[in-house]
Specification:
- It is built from 8 helices and no strands.
- About 65% of the residues lie in helices and about 0% in strands.
- The mean pLDDT is about 95.
- The chain is globular.
- By secondary structure, it is an all-alpha fold.
Length: about 150
Amino acid sequence: MSARMTNPAMVLPDAMKGIGSLTKGIASGGVGNEIMEIVGLRASQINGCGPCVFSHVRNLRKAGVDEDKIATVAVWRHAPYFSDAEIAALKLTEAVTRLADRSDEPVSDELWDEVSKHFDEKQRAALILMISMLNFFNRINATIQEPAGTQW
């Protein structure tokens, strides 16, 4: 299997520069890498993005995260492996990723308060930008049918 085309971010070099700047900004937010990878894995699972799921699983394994934890990200509500901060980040990820699936406020005040208990403003900014960027890449990869295992 091969992609329909080269990733659009690679086709347009100025786009890649912007993505690099955004990535650097997100990294300055102070959220731990494990949480960011878990958030990335969950958004990518929801969106069915094969290369991103593959990449986040690989990154979590390289970081030494327990296999049981990695295997249960999709069912985190029924798994004992996640901290309260990780649960808040996963709830935010699902709310932001599934905006159109809600008939009420996508991110409720209750959820916002829960996230705010665990993350300061810079960290919340990094989480929001990361979730948004993941959804951006998931949509690109789904459109061009990028196969799992692709390396960028």
